[in-house]
């Protein structure tokens, strides 16, 4: 039995998630934000994130509606804050996503429209596989990663935790990208990337 959902945030990323959840007839209790805001789907405003603590962690699921455009600790911090208090983050998967049966997902994974995840890949907690992103076979994607729209990962690619792979970036087969890296939009990554590196261009070079 699906539990009712509280969404953290009310921006564009939260709207995409809300439309998926509504199309799946999930009950949404409301959203949290620092201040009272209108919601385009008439989802009720509950208060700031601390309001969540008034709800029994066994009776609700959370959805992290805060997006990211670069490397940021914000999503990780919120995820850990609430999982440490025994809350669970729901996986949100658009019905048009194609996910091979052997794929393993953590919790709080968000897989947007048209994404494809191939055989034997693993996507860890709180990672966003955004619109049209493709993860080919035997890839390992760490926690708190954002694969921005249209990214392409060839086979056996490893992405470390907290890394942002920019819109339309392409990673060739067998590459390992470290933790907290920033891969620029449109980059083509043909060499391994160490932790904390920002790389842009074709082929991608450290900057
Ligand atoms: C649904 C959604 O919207 S999800 C959001 C998805 N968005 C993304 O993935 C965004 C990814 N971000 C980028 O690609 C950014 O351009 C970044 C993070 C790589 C760079 O941003 P900044 O650090 O602000 O760099 P800035 O814009 O000042 O540019 C610095 C230099 O890098 C170059 N540069 C910036 N981005 C890129 C890129 N993607 N590829 C090649 N060169 C780039 C600029 O041309 C500039 O060069 P110059 O100094 O010779 O003029």
UniProtKB/TrEMBL annotation:
Location of the PglD N-terminal domain: 5-71
The organism's place on the tree of life at top rank: Bacteria
CDD domains per UniProt: LbH_AT_putative
Residues forming the catalytic site: 137
Amino acids binding substrate: 67
Molecular function GO terms recorded: acyltransferase activity
Keyword Transferase recorded: yes
Cited Pfam families: Hexapep, PglD_N
Positions with a binding annotation for acetyl-CoA: 146
EC number(s) given by UniProt: 2.3.1.-
Keyword match Phosphoprotein: no
Gene3D superfamilies given in the database record: 3.40.50.20, Hexapeptide repeat proteins
Annotated site location: Increases basicity of active site His: 138
Enzyme class per UniProt: transferase
Keywords: Acyltransferase, Transferase
The protein, known as: UDP-perosamine 4-acetyltransferase
Lineage of the organism: Bacteria, Bacillati, Bacillota, Bacilli, Bacillales
């Amino acid at each position: 039995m699906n539990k009712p959902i509280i969404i953290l945030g009310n921006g564009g990323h939260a709207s995409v998630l809300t439309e998926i959840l509504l199309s799946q007839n999930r009950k949404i209790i409301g959203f949290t934000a620092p201040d009272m805001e209108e919601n385009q789907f008439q989802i009720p405003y509950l208060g700031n994130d601390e309001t969540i603590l008034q709800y029994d962690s066994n009776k609700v699921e959370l959805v992290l509606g805060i997006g990211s455009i670069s490397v940021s600790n914000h999503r990780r911090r919120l995820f850990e804050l609430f999982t440490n208090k025994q809350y669970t983050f729901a996986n949100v998967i658009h019905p048009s996503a194609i996910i091979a049966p052997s794929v393993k997902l953590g919790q709080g994974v968000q897989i947007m429209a048209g994404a494809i995840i191939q055989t034997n890949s693993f996507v860890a907690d709180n990672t966003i596989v955004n619109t049209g992103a493709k993860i080919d076979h035997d890839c390992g994607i760490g926690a708190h990663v954002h694969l921005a729209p249209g990214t392409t990962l060839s086979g056996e690619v490893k992405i470390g935790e907290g890394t942002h792979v920019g819109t339309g970036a392409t990673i060739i087969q067998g590459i390992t990208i470290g933790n907290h890296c920033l891969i620029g939009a449109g980059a083509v990554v043909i060499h391994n990337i160490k932790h904390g590196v920002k790389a842009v261009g074709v082929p991608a070079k450290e900057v």
